[in-house]
Amino acid sequence: MKKTFYLLTVTFLLLSCNLASKPEQNSLLVRNIDELNNFINKAAPGDVIVLANGIWKDVQIEFYGNGSKNKPITLKAETPGKVFIEGTSFIHLGGNHLIVEGLYFRNGYSPSTSIIRFKIGDNKTAFNSRVTSCVIKNFTKPNRLTNDKWIEFYGKHNTLNHCYISGKSNDGETLRVFQDGNEHSSNHHQIVNNYFGPRPRKGGPRAETIRIGDSKTSMSSGFVNVSNNYFEACNGEVEIISDKTNYNTFKNNIFYKSEGSLVLRHGSFTTVDSNIFIGGDDSNFYGGIRVVSSGHWITNNYFYKIKGEEFRSPLAIMNGIPMSPLNRYKQVTDIVVAYNTWVDCKSPWQIGVGQNIKSMNVLPKYEIRSAPPIRSLIANNLIFNHESDDEPFVNHDNFEGILFKNNVLDNSDKTFTKYGVFENNTIKMKQINGWLYAPEFPQPILTKSIYFGYEFDKIKTDLFGTSRSQNSIGSISNFDTAEKFVINNNLYGPDWFSSEQRTTSPKIFKTSANGNELIQNIAEANSGDIIELTDNLYAIDNSIAIKKDITIRSKNNAQIIFNNPQETPLFEMHPYSFLHLDSVILKGKNNQLAFKPLDKKMSAAYNIDVKNSTIEGFGYILKAPKGSFTDILKFENSLIKQCNNGIVLAAEEKGDYNAEMVTITNCKFESVSNNVVNFFRGGYDESTIGGILSINNSTFINCGKFEENGVLLKTKGIINVDLTNNTFQNNPVKYVAVLWGAKNNIHKENILINSGEIKVEEQQKLEILY
Amino acid sequence: MKKTFYLLTVTFLLLSCNLASKPEQNSLLVRNIDELNNFINKAAPGDVIVLANGIWKDVQIEFYGNGSKNKPITLKAETPGKVFIEGTSFIHLGGNHLIVEGLYFRNGYSPSTSIIRFKIGDNKTAFNSRVTSCVIKNFTKPNRLTNDKWIEFYGKHNTLNHCYISGKSNDGETLRVFQDGNEHSSNHHQIVNNYFGPRPRKGGPRAETIRIGDSKTSMSSGFVNVSNNYFEACNGEVEIISDKTNYNTFKNNIFYKSEGSLVLRHGSFTTVDSNIFIGGDDSNFYGGIRVVSSGHWITNNYFYKIKGEEFRSPLAIMNGIPMSPLNRYKQVTDIVVAYNTWVDCKSPWQIGVGQNIKSMNVLPKYEIRSAPPIRSLIANNLIFNHESDDEPFVNHDNFEGILFKNNVLDNSDKTFTKYGVFENNTIKMKQINGWLYAPEFPQPILTKSIYFGYEFDKIKTDLFGTSRSQNSIGSISNFDTAEKFVINNNLYGPDWFSSEQRTTSPKIFKTSANGNELIQNIAEANSGDIIELTDNLYAIDNSIAIKKDITIRSKNNAQIIFNNPQETPLFEMHPYSFLHLDSVILKGKNNQLAFKPLDKKMSAAYNIDVKNSTIEGFGYILKAPKGSFTDILKFENSLIKQCNNGIVLAAEEKGDYNAEMVTITNCKFESVSNNVVNFFRGGYDESTIGGILSINNSTFINCGKFEENGVLLKTKGIINVDLTNNTFQNNPVKYVAVLWGAKNNIHKENILINSGEIKVEEQQKLEILY
């Protein structure tokens, strides 16, 4: 095969009063992987390898080279954002002084442990190298349970900057810094100016957006700098960031509506300064900063409407385990929390989180977090609530090891004097934008008495970089600077890429009584479109594949009758799908399933929202296979009857689970013989807080008659269960439910008639995962 | 009381091209504690407070002040070494930029937790302060079991230099660095140019000479510098130095005949460079470097005749506990051992020390050291033996996690090829002094192939500071520099103090047959003198106090008959005493004791050496009270008969014990009814390796007839027991001994006639102490 190389030689002349003029630089355009490999092999310091615009499919690039500080070797897109890396692809770097720039990873996944990796194979480590201005979007493994990390840091002095990364739904952190070995610790990596876009809930552990180190390398230092990044909807698990080595810095990051926390997990001596945590009323899972171990300085941070509880609370200072094993919870000691502001958060300060002395009998000794924080200081902080908070400070154990000094609380019309840790007062705060409130000055209560702790002279500036020479309680010391603050989108991600999606009006397909037309319309529709059933009866012979966000609705309760004789689902749910059903009747046979995700390749979650509908006669309403995950599963104002089985989400093990939010409201279940609900989590890992099952205002009649273990609603291992205001009548079971009291399983106002009882076990004996 | 202050104003004019001339300095002579306190209260930067020559008794000095970098506040002796601090005294420092100089602590002890302390009370911490040119000698607590530390470091940037410290025999480290709290961690303390003189064996844990931090602060950094110190006979326990925090440095220290190791215990990333370990043939307890945890660099060290085993071996790299609790054993990872030299050591390299998988059934999971070292490198080292060593490398578990490169072994006439970790070769080494051997150059085997590991460019010099530009395997790369090396006594301790003791010839007292004269001569004798019994019979009515090193001998087996009717000892042993008996007969009654230390105030050890003698008729030969300790207890060629009890050393608990070296050789025990030997250690802490009981070539006849638990020689909890070549005849017991197989308890060639058996329990169930 004849190879054609396009060689562009460009001569630069840089004039500078300090530097010698830059020598010639070779810029080499390559059009395929062979050319690319060839040039990589030949590359000399200063060379620039340019990938031609277009789609590069199945390219597994091992970029090895040795540039120098002033003459790095660069691998870049011809036009940033016009070079698409697709299929089974990755780029791994090894050597010294390399730059990768402008690539867009999409429509595929890495066949390796990672997409971007600062090491090739076992020992060709990269140093002083940088990946910049790249995008990775939905480049997720086909099997959700297969682990990878999209970005693996090894070596020292490497950088990821101005990248956009979103849509990882499989097992494994989005970005991981490895510190196993002297070549990789004290590494001073820079993770700066990136946009970490949405990462969906994973349903289980190992879904952090960033993780630095692990428990086994937690004695090593990182000096990793994570600054000026934007995190949006990073909902993978309870930890957005898991900091597990020492001396790392998190500064000037914005966490926007992310259902997790910045967690100082195993690392010590972390700097957490001038970060912004933006929550809202739409979720109780947005988190703040969770603290374990020693010597952290948490200063100048701003929290708005963070309402997460306990592990996800705005400031969660944990209890430790005495003489903790390496992978559990070191006692909190010697931390400083100063000059932070919480606005409209719920119970923002929680001290001794994770205290579990009551579990002494069901957990081993080395799981009991009985050591409260000590030798710590919380000073000069501000809590401001437009509506009063009943408990702005939650004491889970003993807070006497913490010195509280000059913390001001404006709790609206209700002072909070319990524990004596606040100065209650009225503060004038002015709204600057949707989430930012700043105090106006002068306000003597904020400036007249400021506690000066050990080494507080090191806190020189406030949240927005204003000098603290004119000092104030809270993260903002100067109103004028705060008033001028806007989130600068140019700071985050590549300049050529925008994460904003255009919104178009949905198209409405009017579908007459013809099963094939229904199937065809669904296939033709774009995500967001609506299928409106205009007739009464639709006979369907084969499964309908749902691959996008589709609404099927009718005005007159149209019936969809499923005739396929096989054990097959009426609706086959694909990754990223969302099926909305409104006012329809689904009728099936007792070997069929109403809904079922794919058996394999469920790379991302599916969602189902059923309202005002009837489902009858099926073998299963839903049966989740292993590896599938539904983020939202919702039944409202609907009737489910005459089915062998109900909703079965019980195929996982080892801490994973099949669904996050399962909601049943105003429904009636009648004559469902088994598994009315079977929502199961095998194995316990507290780093995830799910799933969530809510059953309200619903009725269950004549259900569970073949239930072998005698439990109607099976919820084993699920963390949040709420059974409220339901009626259970004539269900021949021993237990309507067996709840886990210690893990937010609650029941109230239920009526039980001839239906067994609801039992609460405060502590359940757990299979521990680590 | 009228106070007279002596004010000497001295004007200095310092000429310097960079600094402004120094202002006036006040030098204030004080004569008593009131004057001293008064001046301390008034002291201004630059002031010098001078303690008048003489004895300062019961002075508890709290030296608080705030000097500045260029104008410290100094508290010094009028003449260094002529100011004696005695009685119940201490000096504690608080504030900034203080200097203490030239004090001599003796004849007393601190009533506090410490003698020198860089903190006053709870929170007046000292920073940037220095204690220099002081001596602390035998300033030890009256009760050996009462804990103190002689020197307590708090704060940051404090220094102890040119001090001499010896004779601590009570519980507690000689010097401890505390890192509990941000004021005290990352402290950069300097412990340099000190002379750590003899510290006797303590018989239990907590007798390190230096300890930095503890397990609970082991995540914090120290940056403590321990350099250019001399350690002589620091025998307190198995750890001379216990390094428990991160980033500390041990450089250019000399460890001379010290029965312990430099132990990298909980800390990580320690630098151990260019230290010299000098042992000898006279002890098998001299140790080297023991390694736990991560990231240590052990380079350029020199070891001569270090023959300690396992925990004390010249290089002991330990096995860790998987996910170790904070206070146990982290796995060894990422260490580098390069360019070191071992000359005439015994089994110098031991990998996986402490592996105790066999104890799985008697110890909890978190005690099992099953994790071998990983990701480590041992390169460019030299082992040289004048006589071949059967096992220069001992593999306790699995050494595959270590990369061995270019290590050269000259094992005399015997190559060692097992494991393949050495290049066997003949090296030319030339003796420079009693302990130093250096290779002559050129020797291609040492210079032609040197492994260049990651960051080896940082190892710029060799043991004696010669540049490694002309590089070589081993710690010495240049013969000429090595040849010129002498230990420079001026480097260590105060210039006004010498630790060398003059030796005088002993005086011999000829003592005729008069008990009172015997007592009087003993009282008059100086330490080292000899009492010679010239007649046959000495009747003694009262206990004889032994307060020094005394020999009592006779040529014709003189009898000493003890007539006191009370339950009292013939010889009352005091601290620091050593009683030698040669060819005497001691006769007592069955409520008396032949030997007994004081019940209280046994601040230091006593020693007894009995040979060619007979002891008969006593209630006890020896009964050790709690708090007493005998370092050497020796019976040789002697007969012990007709006693109710033999040697009882069983009053301690919690890991302490009453004796270190107990030796019985060529003796006969006849009709000793109970406790022929009862040597007990309650509770197990592996950080000490004792006691040591050796019974050889001896005979036991008709003993143990009232032994309640049926064991003749009780050795419960004792680590080293050797029963060899003894005869046991007609002793009505079930067991002659019950030995602890796993802990170096051995028996061989014993004859047992009508005397029960010797049982070996490989594992004993232990009470763990921590």
Short description:
The structure is a homodimer of 770-residue chains. With 770 residues, chain A is mainly beta. Chain A is built from 4 helices and 69 strands.
Greatest interface (CB-CB under 8 A), with counts per chain = A-B, 33 and 33 residues
Number of strands of chain A: 69
Shape of chain A: globular
Give the biggest beta sheet of chain A.
Answer: 24 strands, parallel
Mean of residue pLDDT values of chain A: 93
Termini of chain A, distance in Å?
Answer: 53 Å
Helix content of chain A: under 10%
Report the portion of residues of chain A in β strands: 35-45%
How many separate helices of chain A?
4
State the low-pLDDT regions of chain A, or none: 1-23
Quaternary: homodimer
Structural class estimated from helices and strands of chain A:
mainly beta
Radius of gyration of chain A: 28 Å
Outline the structure in words.
With 770 residues, the first copy, chain A, is mainly β. Among the domains of chain A are: 274-501, no CATH class; 505-626; 650-770, no CATH class. Helices cover 4% and strands 40% of the residues of chain A. Chain A is built from four helices and 69 strands. Chain A has a 24-stranded parallel sheet that branches. The longest helix of chain A has 10 residues, at 33-42. The two termini of chain A are 53 Å apart. Residues 1-23 of chain A have low confidence and may be disordered.
